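Here comes my example:
=====
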Amino acid sequence: MTVWRTGTATGVGSLPGTDPLEAAKLVLGELPVPHLPELPNRGHLADIAGRGAALLADLHVDVQPTGWRFVPRSSREGRRAKDLLRQDVDALELAAHGSHPEHLKLQATGPWTLATIVELHRGDKALADHQAVADIAQSLAEGLKQHVADVQRRFPSTRIHLQLDEPSLNGVLHAGIPTASGFATLRAPSRQTVRDHLRSALEAHDSTVLHCCARRPPIELLAEATAISVDAAMLDPRDDDALGAALEQGTGLLLGVPRDVKAALQVVGRVRDRVGVRDVTLTPPCGLADDPDARATMAQLTKAAGEL
């Protein structure tokens, strides 16, 4: 039976605070499927851009006044981002006290969202250059393989799952990403190109999740992974056919629901009624970096999953 089944809950990724050991203890203690916590409150080296930059292999980035930019050689900021990621994995291993969870989820910035963040040498977003996007997808895949292998060595009996976060995917598809000047938007790539580069990154591992918390997420593209993760509040009845088709072919579903147990059960009931889904794993609607009581949120989520 797949891990993404009814009665299971997991996190999306980010948590509040700046202490990786405290965050690791939290996810290991509260969630049926723990995840490697992300702590963006530590600053730009640990947010979605910094975490994505830390996972690139053989591509170097540095922080410029306008944000992350590709550079020809290793930079201090790039090395520091990698160090923070290593510290997070160290903290998770320490918090586990030698025990191995049955399942563990890792998160990473997806290639298309990363291409809307990192700039080329000349200042344009990498999304403006088709070859740059291809390079990001390939570099990310290699970095993710190394990352998964490192975590697997530390937790040899744990089943690892890899989530790629693509909050900017709709913007990419619908030409909604602004140019460097801000006076225009970048041309949308073909849907097949988007699919191909997603596949390149997903090939890093055999159990994958594509997460998009935007309104009307592109379900048919998210279904390139073995499971999709969406916020139930962002779904529209027009998404039902695509969602139903994805689930029918065996794709797992991670569904973002409200914190309140009763409200969460009602949301799941409505989605089930519309698309006929049986197995569903509960998550928060999105990351919990701004949640002052993430522990209670996780506890409520786990309770709701159990009541399903």
Q: What stands out?
A: DSSP finds eleven helices and eight strands in the chain.
